[in-house]
Write a structure and sequence with these properties.
mainly alpha, Arc Repressor Mutant, subunit A, 2 domains
């Protein structure tokens, strides 16, 4: 049975890792201090809960960094899905009226996605926006997991070609 850490043990690990973890998270949050603090707080809440039953891992900063990176990835996926999802399942909302760089990139993606075949659009939505696992998509489509992976790869390639062929994308794609 793992050693159950005391509150002092957890506080000691917190003091030892908080600066490095915050630096790691803030670099990945692009200067959004509120988001970095939210990710840090959630990572630590999960750490305390898990460590009370499983014990403190040998490399706590590695554990915390992995959890924080996954939380941030999930946050970004949810944010992208919310921006692109209009509730209909197949169409995309009109591009935003703002002229900022992020809005322009999102607009390019929306336009490119609207040009994809419906099956490719649905597959990209299921995997990237709905975060459905390949196995679940494969089962619902009645094909193998490798088949889904191949179709996803081709859908991503089609999306990239559409974006690159857009004259407004010049200088946006690196």
């Amino acid at each position: 049975m793992p050693h159950r850490p005391s509150e002092d043990d957890i506080r000691r690990v917190y003091r030892q890792t908080v600066d490095d973890l915050f630096a790691f998270v803030s670099r990945r949050c692009g200067g959004d201090r509120d988001l970095a603090e939210d990710i840090m707080q959630e990572a630590w809440l999960r750490a305390v809960k898990a460590w009370r039953t499983d014990g403190i891992p040998d490399r706590p900063i590695a554990w915390l960094s992995t959890v924080a990176a996954r939380l941030l990835s999930n946050h970004r996926r949810r944010s992208v899905a919310e921006r692109f999802d209009d509730g209909s399942g197949d169409s995309l909302p009109a591009p935003p009226a703002s002229g900022n760089e992020r809005g322009e990139r999102e607009s390019l993606v929306r336009v490119a996605m609207s040009k994809l075949p419906v099956l490719q659009l649905r597959l990209l939505r299921a995997f990237h926006f709905d975060r459905r696992p390949v196995s679940e998509i494969a089962a619902s489509m009645g094909i193998s997991q490798r088949g889904v992976e191949g179709r996803l790869r081709r859908a991503r390639q089609s999306l990239r070609r559409e974006i690159e062929s857009d004259p407004d994308a010049q200088g946006e794609i690196k």
